[in-house]
Records
---
Amino acid sequence: MMERPRYFTPSEVASHCTSADLWVSFLGRVCDLSPLMSRYQGDVLLLPIMECAGKDISNWFDPKTKDILKFVDPLTCCERYYTPRGRFVHVPPNGPCSDWDSDIGQPWWKDRRYEVGLLSAKTRWIRILNTLTSQEQLLEVCSEETLEEILQRFLRFNSHARSYTWKHQGQILDMKKTLAENGIMDDDLELDQLRLDRDIFIPTILLNFNDDLTEG
């Protein structure tokens, strides 16, 4: 059985924005380039990547070929990679170069070893209310995530989250399904069209305490 990919919000990607901990997203993928930064430490070709640490760089790529954008050089009539921020690691030079190592294997943007997950196509805010303690927590989640995966996110706020029954409008939620599959629809577009404040209409999930406590 194929393992489900892990989804990340743009804000999660943005939190990895140092040379020692550098993530980027592109074409729906999230990649941890920290090993690349370590391998080529001190190389000037890392600068364009460092400038975009924690950001989405889909505009660097052709969505059809999944490769770096290309153009035809008007002077040489040769096809070149389009890198307006400057050439970066694994992009070949425009001309003959004695220090260019062509034996790099897969360039980093094609190397699946750097991939840590997928970027959510749409994130949502939910309100989780503990009916036992009246504690309330706002949580940004990925629309592709199941309730079980959302629970994993919530564990840092309540390590006993599995000891609760998750409900919405009186209905017990299926933890193997997404919010939408549980009937908790994303009304953001409709709210925007009606010029209503999204924050007022954040859906609330109620946690009802069970008898047993799971280990923290």
---
Amino acid sequence: MNIPGGTPSLKLLWLNQDAGIQARRLDALLGCFDLSSSREELQAVENPFKALCCLLTYLFVQVDTLCLEDLHAFIAQALCLQGKPTVQLIDLQLDYIDARAVQLGSLLVRGLTTLVLVNSACGFPWRMSDFMPWNVFDGKLFHQKYLQSEKGCTVEALVEQNRSRLTKFHALKSVVCKACVRENRRIVSRQHWHSPQPGRWGRQGSGSHRTSSGYSRAGPGQHWRIQGPGNRQYEPDHWRRYSSSGWSN
């Protein structure tokens, strides 16, 4: 891992109480996701969105077929979830079920689970409560925002015409997009896709990156990462929308 000062031992991360150890712990966590260069921006993000931005940046760097509409849906649902009554979420009605939205929601929750494990292994540089799915994700609400984003709804509509949310939306989007650009990953709208490799250009560097075979620089061992229609081994037109009958289990 590319960590300032080298990779620390678990003994140092878990047992050391010296001044500055929290900074080493955070360096280790960000190093696990190759986000050391975005440290300052992520630290400036308010809770509980810090962990969400970390995860979204990692996912969008690793998965080429995630697009701008997906990012809008992820961020908008996290912002709209704050303070929304449970009964309102229960009564939420969807026009239809999109299989890709279900898969993306599952991917995010699995990613949060991985973040919990990494945060624990690094000695808890961030509060564990920031990683709890119920603070930043609701499946039905995400599905609604995904369908709206897919239809081309404006950002204002996605955040339900709330000015405070709109300001936070642009701030969070900026953090993720800037971090992705550092990794040569440009997040573009699905409408701009003209090749099976959207949003990436001439990426060079250490490690193996995601290719048409579906493997990423982190290797095939991280099983929570997206597989199937969201993977670049599928052409974009093939996964635009699936009916529920086309999916097993």
---
Amino acid sequence: MTTSAYKRTILITGATDGIGKQTALDLAAHPDNFVIIHGRTEEKCIATKEWIGKENGNSSNIDYVAGDFAVLKEVAIMAEEVERRFPELNVLLCNAGVLYPRRLETKDGMESTFQVNYLSHYLLCNLLLPVLSHNRSNVIVVGSVLHTWPSLDWADVMAEKEYEKYLQYSRSKLMCHLMAFALHRRMNIARQHVNVNIIELGKEKEPNNNGKLRTTSALSSSMSTLSICRQAGNLAQLIEGPCLEKISGKYLDPSGKQMRSGSDATDERLQERLWSYSKELCHDYM
């Protein structure tokens, strides 16, 4: 399939629910955009495509790819499909994420939050670099202010000794920040035309004195429709605007203003340690 008639060919991970779904709707409403929906199953992708087509009155600029981020092999197959079917891809929005109340393991034998929120995005970004580099692209990683809360526990990355859902979620977001900065540096050194930035969507609260997180706007299962629409609208405006064309390696608020990252996130030694660790975990697919 050729999408050369469009200014932007956009892949959104986790686009069948929540903010990802609403962002896909908003972006698909613009005639300059071709939107690729990603979801865990083909059934969910088809349902989302039909819903967007009905809402916008047009589905000609929407397609989908399915792949379960809890299975690295499916991520690799999906990346190959994207590269083959959508060679004009020039925007990758890393949005997919989970928050599990109890510890689960994937088919790859890894903790689910770690793999779905972070490692599968690491693998996908690396596998799509050839096409992204060719097309002068933007990689946008959905971040979280919660990345400043924890440090990584290298003795328990998979949370086998201790699992607390908000702690593991926050650590997965710290890993996403570390990955984005490391990827930016690699693209800069190699003089590749790929901008990599992290976007903060909402105001999540810090842990209370007991080390537990209170209900947060970005994590609450009862997030209002208005909040989802507002955050998705911010994302769509950033993607369609000029801001991301000019900067890379930044942590941005919903308006595109630079924010200060946590000290762990900007630690290059920590970035490289995580990159090497992740590369080893994904070695069968890279």
